[in-house]
Each structure stands twice: as structure tokens, then as C-alpha cells.
Amino acid sequence: MTRQPTVPYGRQQIADEDIEAVCATLRSNWLTTGPTVERFEQELARKVGVEHGVAVCNGTAALHAAMYALGIGPGDEVIVPPMTFAATANAVLYQGGTPVFADVEADTLLIDPAAIEARITPRTKAVVAVDYAGQSCDYDALRTIAERHGLRLVADACHSLGGSYHGAPCGSQADLSVFSFHPVKPITTGEGGMVVTGNEELARRMRIFRNHGITTDHRQRSLAGAWRYEMVELGYNYRLSDIHCALGLSQLNRLDGFIQRRQNIAARYDAAFAGYPAIRPLAVRPWNSHGYHLYVVRAPHRDTLYAGLRDRGINANVHYTPVHLHPYYRQHLGTGEGLCPVAEAAWDEILSLPIFPALSNDEQERVIAALEEVVAEVAP
Ligand SMILES: *Cc1c(COP(=O)(O)O)cnc(C)c1O
What we know:
Elements: H1 16-26, H2 35-48, E1 52-56, H3 59-69, E2 77-80, H4 87-94, E3 98-101, H5 113-119, E4 124-130, H6 139-149, E5 152-156, E6 164-165, E7 168-169, E8 176-180, E9 193-197, H7 200-209, H8 218-224, H9 242-252, H10 255-273, E10 280-281, E11 288-289, E12 295-298, H11 302-311, H12 327-333, H13 341-347, E13 350-353, H14 361-378
Parallel strand pairs: 2-3, 2-4, 4-5, 5-8
Antiparallel strand pairs: 1-9, 6-7, 6-11, 8-9, 10-12, 12-13
Helix pairs in contact: 1-9, 2-9, 3-4, 3-7, 11-14
Bound molecules: pyridoxal-5'-phosphate.
């Protein structure tokens, strides 16, 4: 039997126009802190319908910048869901704050508003909601809670760029919304991230934070013909280069098509699994347009399905190990089993199937056929 190429769970799609855009930047005067950074910030912010964008070197730095801008520090608590990449909670720790885990809803794995209310204390400063798998959280409900308790609301929208909530773009609903441009994400810059916000003061703080805490950048000084600068905060070098942003701008042009393709793939999976109680796709709220960064099913025989797919050259994945169960969190925050039972139960069953714009129909048929074979063995 000839071995077919391995199908990953996600990957980038790079077109000739992306390569051209990067090359044009390489031939230009500015490799970093140049005009392409600003253009990418403006165009992505406009796409999302928010005034300001601050580009940084990855999604994790974007989360860190968001925590910094909100003034999170020692003694402050920030509520986060456990069903996310560790970076969501780690960003709170970077600032010396304490992440507090609020459980998710069983059918969507999105943070549960009732669980948030149960975790609020006098020290709670903010909530970071995660648009898990590419589906928007219920921001109307979250905003009501945030306003009632005087909390700031952050969206970890690393999965949901291109999706929408009641017709409004994902990333337009919170005080600060964070994106990642890692190769598996909705669009890529290789590594990259951005925070968007309607709040000019928060945007200003993040621009200083990403540039060592210095009030002007190299191009601003060059344009002003002045050498003097001042460092006013302890910041970082979290800048994103013009080379990355050229790729991001070019990818942004194709975002709508990427999302459409992801939604088509999801619809084909939905139809294929409709008659299989052993493979249950997560629920989608009717007011959401799902960006489908991930296509997640719950399957009681998850480990067998995972292994069976691997034997057939298909790399599924599990998103995520609940953050509060990682050894670091157990050791340093004393978290463990029982803290978020819904997420913990889901962890035993979730499987992310291959979904990305460049996945061909034939490859998807291979995935579906492989699953049908394995399911016939374990749950006939
Ligand atoms: C990818 C991701 C991040 C981190 O983004 P990087 O660009 O990899 O640093 C944070 N949160 C979520 C939910 C993510 O999926």
C-alpha cells in the first residue's frame, strides 16, 4: 500500500501574492517600525470595526500587553476559562496577577457566565473570555456582568478572527481583543499578534509597552529629525516587523475566503457525523458565524479514534489540556481536579479534526472514511 501524505490538523496557506508582498518589503527602506506595521494595524482594526490596532510579536505578547494596559498587578485576580492555551492565563502571571478559573459550558466549551459570577471577589479586576475554536462567547451576557461588577472585559479572539457575533465582527465586543497570527490561526504572519481596542489611552499604553517603555519609536524620531527619547515605563521589545506585517496585510485580503472554506469543511463534517452518536460536534449558537479555527467533536472513544487516525496518516489533536491541570499551575497556584468539572470531563472526549483552507475534499474524505472505520470497530 502506498503511504499517502500525512494530513495535519491545521496549517497555513501561502499564495504567490503573499510572497510578492514580503519581497517588496525586503526591497523597501523599512524592515521594522516602518509604514507597513501601521497599515496592517489600521486595516485589521477596520476589518474588525474597532478604532485602534497595536501589532506585537505574537499572540502571547498581545495578551501580556492587554494585562499591562489594564494595570493588572500583584493582588489582582483575572477570571479566565480553563479550556484554552496556557498563554491566556500565563499573561496574568507575567504581570504578577492571579488567574482564577471559571468553568465552561458543556456543549460549546465557551466560558459560562454563571461560573464567572461565582468566582468574582473584591480583588477581581478583569475577565478574559476565549472564543474557543473560533466561536464567539456571549459578549452581551459578559458585558452585563462586567458592568455590574466594574470589571474590564478582554477577548482572547486568537481563534475567531473572521467570525461574527449577532452580525458584529469577532474582536469588536470587549474593551481589548487579542489576535494571534501563528501559522495555524485564521491568518498568519509567521509569528505575530495584535490587540485592538476602541480606547485611545489603552492603545497608547500598549504602543509604549511594546517598545521598551519608550515614548517614541525610531521612525517617529526620524520623521521629527530628533534624537532625544525617554523611557517612562518598564516595557519590552515586543515589536512586529514590517516583513511580518506585509504578509499579514496580504493574508487579510483573503480572510473572508479562508473562513468560507473552513465553514464549508465544517458543514461536510457535520453532515457526515449526523448519524453517529459516537462522534458529536460541539454546539454552535444561532447568533454566531463560527470561524472554525478548530473543528472539535466529543467522542467517548477519543483515544482509540486518535490512534486509529494516526495509523491512517491523519494527525488529529486535543485542544486543550485544561490549564489548571498543568503541573506548573498545580504547583504554583494549588489548582487541580474538581476546580472546573465540565472542562475536565470534556478533556477526556475532545478531538480536533483537520480543518484549514488548503484541506482538499479528497483529504477530508480520507478523514471521514478513517473515522467511520475506527468507529465501526469500537462502537458498532
Ligand atoms: C495561539 C493562541 C494564543 C497565543 O498566540 P501565540 O501567537 O502562539 O503566542 C493565545 N491564546 C489562544 C486561545 C491561542 O489559540
